[in-house]
Amino acid sequence: MDKMIIHLICPDQMGIISKLTSILHKSMCNILSIQQYVDKEKEKFYIRLSVQANSDQALPKEELLELSSGLNGKMNFFDPEKKLNAAILGTKETAPIYDLLIKNKSHELNCNFPIIISNHSDLSTVSNQFDIDFYKINDNHDLASVLYKNKIDLIILARYMQIIPDDIVDLYKNKIINIHHGFLPAFKGAKPYHQAYERGVKIVGATAHYVTSELDEGPIIFQDTIQINHKHSIKDIIQLGRDIEKNVLSKAVRAHLDNKIIVHNQKTIIFD
């Protein structure tokens, strides 16, 4: 039996769920779950459906797309059983990379990690431990070539301290997740912990977000914080931040892999 995840964004109006479920019922589809959200200020309707087709009938994609068009909406379909190929990009920091790979080994993340990419050789040790191909790249042309060669579906920036070129950002729209070691939109750019320390803030955090052409401006997926005080040194803050970073990043990656995120403009809708 075929399973499918459906995302729909459209202007809020009467009868959306009734129309969707009528098409699915007519095609003998079993609805496994429905989650919805209405943004009353923007008058936007968001819905995520998990459905399963009857073995004798195909999923009614064409009818659903016709409905979406009639609602002036946008609909996407996802195969929940398909494992994406995810590339991990890092520079020297290993904590978030180890966390992703260990969670993948324990089947907490539904994806394949075929490669680790870096602009330094330090991370080759990690790739050897997990029997993953390692690529040291020298420029953005090398990066594009490696991604294409390995049929990469998702890019994860695990403290990768380089700018991703616009052509790759455009090609992987809403498919590049970055962990920023700062609580965005505050403290963008380099050394956010140092910025926070100099300002004497009382909380520090981390932010997982999709990458856009504007630095640290992409739609936010997950954030978390921890309280600090005047007694904490910059070294203390960096150490405290490491735990937050890896947890926030893995939550964001899991939500993406489970097709629980709908992105609309600069906002993310994340279903449980």
Structure description:
By secondary structure, the chain is of the alpha/beta class. It has two domains: 3-78, 2-Layer Sandwich (Alpha-Beta Plaits), CATH 3.30.70.260; 84-270, Formyl transferase, N-terminal domain (Rossmann fold), CATH 3.40.50.170. The chain contains eight helices and 13 strands. The strands form three sheets. The protein has a seven-stranded mixed sheet with strand order 7-6-5-8-9-10-11, sandwiched between helices. Strands 2-3-1-4 form a four-stranded antiparallel sheet, covered by helices on one side. The protein has a two-stranded antiparallel sheet with strand order 12-13. Helix 3 runs parallel beside helix 8. The radius of gyration is 21 Å and the shape is globular. The model has no long low-confidence stretch (mean pLDDT 92).
The CATH topology name of the largest domain reads Rossmann fold
Stretches where pLDDT is under 50 for at least 5 consecutive residues are: none
Total count of domains: 2
The percentage of residues in β strands lies in 25-35%
Strand order of the largest sheet: 7-6-5-8-9-10-11
**Global geometry:** globular
Structural class: alpha/beta
> What would you report as the Rg, rounded to the nearest angstrom?
21 Å
Helix and strand element order:
EHEEHEEHEHEHEHEHEEHEE
The mean pLDDT is 92
Superfamily at the CATH H level of the largest domain? Answer: Formyl transferase, N-terminal domain
The CATH architecture classification of the largest domain is: 3-Layer(aba) Sandwich
